[in-house]
């Protein structure tokens, strides 16, 4: 079901200069094929969400509840205390004490390790500097402080010609322009448009008690919650992290409302100690089924009511949101924002082969996945790889939907699927036509990542590695290697080999 069709692409637009967009820029540039590569980002510097914003402000577009993706460009905000001096920014979900929950030895781009001496789980500022450094090699391709307003298809999609018009606006000046491209890479991420479920009474509660309900996107530090009675809604990565931080200053216990119990093997839940005399600082409670405005309270699924609540922080995730693609048919954004329909291998639009998406999968290690995706896309666009047939792409998508259904699980590539995915894309990219006169590595081009046994071993264990680091408290920032936490792949492999030999001898 392979195809002998190849794409005819000369001008490529990349939307977003975060981790995914930078990966795309590197691999597209490495093809030495395209006359124009332009990477748009509405922020003043590359790095995407890792560009921390300290502002204590909320997007004017933010609503409570919030159950569908926005159909407008991202809101640019000013610091209320410095509205005249500071330029407008896009609020980042990065908070003061954020550190990665992935070891940097696994998180990094395959051609660039983190700086020597970096903590194994580096703080956000280290990641920001790492991305800024990587952006230097593609700086000539970046159009920063440029917001993408709309992407339009200019003619019926086809293999030989599929032109796109992109309307943009320069943020400081307000100047608008339209540029035409042959292909588009969407790399704007999916941690920007917050989701807040529509729970009975929530809208009335928010109207009666403005400012009590917020979302993790706008959290920066625990200080504002000092002495308060707090409910954190959600117990995934951000819920776990924020509840632990808030619990250091808030009334005890912080109530963590969850639909499902977290899986200890896939989360980085901090240890919460208690004694006979001191209650634990965090208590898990069922999901909220009703907000009670008159009592400033909530009712949980078990019937228990809590009143006089000071703060409710929703750590309920984000939508897949593409307001600049609103004119496309069929629609890219589904009403509930839970997934992106019509994508082959979570990347390529079945209906529009010159429209691709990076970073869609969930439960992955984003940087190397973006590299693996970018390597394949760059080779497709340069014509070194044939375009998969429409039938092949649709069959793949139908099988995925049959397995996972329609919804948020569609893009879940939790281990070991993410390892298999990276390596499958690697193998595809390595099959591209070689061009020794133009490309390095004997004409193969820029090499994509490949995860061998040691990477896969580390990937499987990184939640446990994170727990081991957290148990060290502040000393964890001095940990730079896995072995310092007792995770030694070579020792494990030698032991496993010895055990296998003993079993072989018995048989």
From TrEMBL:
UniProt GO MF annotations: monooxygenase activity
KW Heme (keyword) present: no
InterPro entries for this protein: FAD/NAD-bd_sf, Flavin_mOase, Flavin_mOase-like, FMO-like
Region annotation (Disordered) ranges: 64-83, 257-279
Coiled-coil residue windows: none
Bias (Basic and acidic residues): 68-80
Keyword NADP attached: yes
Compositionally biased spans, kind Low complexity: 264-275
Top-level taxon in the UniProt lineage: Eukaryota
Listed Gene3D superfamilies: FAD/NAD(P)-binding domain
Keywords (A to Z) from UniProt: FAD, Flavoprotein, Monooxygenase, NADP, Oxidoreductase
Family the entry assigns: Belongs to the FMO family.
Protein name: Monooxygenase
């Amino acid at each position: 079901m392979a195809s002998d069709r190849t794409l005819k692409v000369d001008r490529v637009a990349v939307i977003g200069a975060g981790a995914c967009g930078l990966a795309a820029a590197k691999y597209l540039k490495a093809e030495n094929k395209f006359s124009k590569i332009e990477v748009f980002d509405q922020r003043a510097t590359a790095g995407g969400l890792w560009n921390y914003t300290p502002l204590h402000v909320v997007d004017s577009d933010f609503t409570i509840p919030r159950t569908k993706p926005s159909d407008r460009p991202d809101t640019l905000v000013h610091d209320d205390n410095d509205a005249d001096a500071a330029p407008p920014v896009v609020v980042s979900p990065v908070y003061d004490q954020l550190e990665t929950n992935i070891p940097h030895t696994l998180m990094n781009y395959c051609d660039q390790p983190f700086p020597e001496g970096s903590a194994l789980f580096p703080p956000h500022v280290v990641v920001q500097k790492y991305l800024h450094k990587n952006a230097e090699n593609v700086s000539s391709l970046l159009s920063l402080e440029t917001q993408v307003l709309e992407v339009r298809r200019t003619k019926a999609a086809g293999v030989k010609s599929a032109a796109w018009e992109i309307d943009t606006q320069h943020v400081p000046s307000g100047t608008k322009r339209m540029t035409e491209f042959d292909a588009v890479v969407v790399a704007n991420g999916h941690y920007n448009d917050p989701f807040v479920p529509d729970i009975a009474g929530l809208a009335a509660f928010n109207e009666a008690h403005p400012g009590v309900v917020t979302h993790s996107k706008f959290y920066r530090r625990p200080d504002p919650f000092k002495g308060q009675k707090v409910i954190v809604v959600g117990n995934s990565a951000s819920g776990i992290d924020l509840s632990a931080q808030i619990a250091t200053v808030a009334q005890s216990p912080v109530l963590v409302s969850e639909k499902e119990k977290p899986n200890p093997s896939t989360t980085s839940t901090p240890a919460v100690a208690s004694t006979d005399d001191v209650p634990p600082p965090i208590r898990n409670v069922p999901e909220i089924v009703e907000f009670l405005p008159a009592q400033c309270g909530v009712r949980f699924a078990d019937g228990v009511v809590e009143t006089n609540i000071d703060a409710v922080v929703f750590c309920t995730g984000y939508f897949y949101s593409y307001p600049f693609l609103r004119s496309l048919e069929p629609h890219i954004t589904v009403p509930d924002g839970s997934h992106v329909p019509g994508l082959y291998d979570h990347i390529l639009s079945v209906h529009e082969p010159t429209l691709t998406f990076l970073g869609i999968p969930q439960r992955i290690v984003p940087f190397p996945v973006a590299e693996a995706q970018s390597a394949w896309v760059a080779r497709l666009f340069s014509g070194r790889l044939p375009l998969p047939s429409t039938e092949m792409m649709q069959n793949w998508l139908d099988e995925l939907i049959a397995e996972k259904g329609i919804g948020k699980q569609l893009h879940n590539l939790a281990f070991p699927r993410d390892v298999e995915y990276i390596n499958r894309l690697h193998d595809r990219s390595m099959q591209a036509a070689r061009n020794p006169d133009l490309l390095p590595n004997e004409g193969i081009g820029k090499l994509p990542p490949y995860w061998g046994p040691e990477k896969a071993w580390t990937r499987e264990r990184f939640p446990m590695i994170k727990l081991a680091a957290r148990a060290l408290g502040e000393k964890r920032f001095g940990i730079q290697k896995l072995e310092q936490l007792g995770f030694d792949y070579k020792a494990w492999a030698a032991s496993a080999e010895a055990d296998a030999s003993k079993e072989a001898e018995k048989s």
